[in-house]
Amino acid sequence: QTWPPTTQKEFSQTDKPPFLPPHLLNIILNKDTAAHYEPALLPEPNHVMLKHLYALSIRVRFN
């Protein structure tokens, strides 16, 4: 299957993917925690990440 010529012009292979917004660059998993925290607990996620995960759970239903 081939793409229509207009689509090929819009998305060339040399285009780079978009950068992530800075608030999504914070990694929650495998992040170093302070010594006084229990190692099994994750740090508290920021509100942007929580809203993103909540919106994703509404939009995509995992069965």
TrEMBL record:
Pfam family, one: AMPKBI
Gene3D superfamilies named among the record's database cross-references: 6.20.250.60
SUPFAM superfamilies: AMPKBI-like (SSF160219)
One MF annotation (Gene Ontology) recorded for this entry: protein kinase binding
One GO cellular component term: nucleus
Association with the SNF1 complex (ASC) domain segment(s): 4-63
Domain of life from the UniProt record: Eukaryota
A Gene Ontology biological process term: signal transduction
InterPro entries: ASC_dom, ASC_dom_sf, CRP1_MDG1_kinase
PANTHER family listed in its UniProt record: 5'-AMP-ACTIVATED PROTEIN KINASE , BETA SUBUNIT (PTHR10343), 5'-AMP-ACTIVATED PROTEIN KINASE SUBUNIT BETA-1 (PTHR10343:SF84)
Family per record: Belongs to the 5'-AMP-activated protein kinase beta subunit family.
Protein name from the UniProt record: Association with the SNF1 complex (ASC) domain-containing protein
Species in which this protein is naturally found: Rotaria magnacalcarata
